[in-house]
From TrEMBL:
GO cellular component, one term: plasma membrane
Alphabetically ordered keywords of this record: Membrane, Transmembrane, Transmembrane helix
Amino-acid biosynthesis in keyword set: no
Name under which the protein is recorded: Integral membrane protein
Transmembrane segments: 12-30, 36-54, 66-86, 92-112, 124-144, 150-170
InterPro entries attached to this UniProt entry: Acid_resist_chaperone_HdeD, DUF308_memb
Coiled-coil intervals: none
A family per Pfam: DUF308
Amino acid sequence: MFSSERKFDPFTLVLGVLFAIMSMVILRNPLGSLKVLIYVIAIALVVEGVIKLADTSMIDKTLGMSSGWLIFSAVIDLILGVMIFIKPELGTVYIWIVLALWFIFDSFFELWASRFISKQHKGYFWFDVILGVLGVILGFILLFSPGMAVSVGLFLVAFYFMFFGILLIVRSF
């Protein structure tokens, strides 16, 4: 079933090259890429809202629990997704706020979690603390600088595409 002999996979190579090209397109055309990203987010919010609404009946039947919070969340997702479709500028604000809050909350979590490794690995503990503090600072900078936040968001998407593309190209051989 599994062979130690590696074979060339042209599909993975083509997919990796497409991801790498997509990364370069995002970096060369940030405004157009931002528009596409905004519509992708709007579609994702609408789809997530519909899926959550479909899940409410299953939760009621299966668990016998109230699904009020799930319905509330689904309606918020649907409203936000439709509003972003109608007024795409809201998508830019959404990216800005979500990215900044993600940096802040994730960094605070890292700082909280670093206390568990302080006794075993002092070097990693201090590395984690320094990165956590830098993340909190960057999150607050992004929170008060919408242009920078949107630029960082696009760069992160481009970086992910390039990284994943290179990974697929290497895997193809």
